Amino acid sequence: MSDREFTGMSIDAVSPRAYRTEIVLRALKLIGNPIAAGADDLSLPKATVQKIITEILQPSPGVTFAKDARDLLIDCCVEFITLISSEANEIAEKEAKKTIATEHIDKALRELGFPEYVQEVLASAGEHKEALKTREKKTNKMDQSGLSEAELLRQQEELFKSATEKYNQGPA
Q1: pLDDT on residue 11
Q2: Are 78 and 44 within 8 A, CB to CB?
């Protein structure tokens, strides 16, 4: 079966990205989408997706993004994420790795025909890594108290003693 017979479209008639996307979507539909089997509960937050849509679309009077179109977009995003992560998982397994790393996502995007996304994905991963380095470290309650460990232990012992006495007194 040729690509044309499979998709019903010519690659010359559409952009390569649209053609690849059509092939992936039709293949998933044809094989019953085993990638997302049992994943009906997977979704993205509608408010977040709506915010992204609003930020991306130029404000035009009278133009809105229908709710069913937003829901379809969410489904497509979930399918894309599932497709990429499944491919990245296979790549990691072939390399006997137990953790999917950035390079596995890179290879998955390239192997699935989305090389134009790689540079932006790697840049975003780098920004995220830098943000993690500069992120404020969480402090625990012991550090926040300003008391020494010995003083905190003394207070804990007093609380235990008080609770034991209260328990031993019985109902009031």
Answers
A1: 47
A2: yes
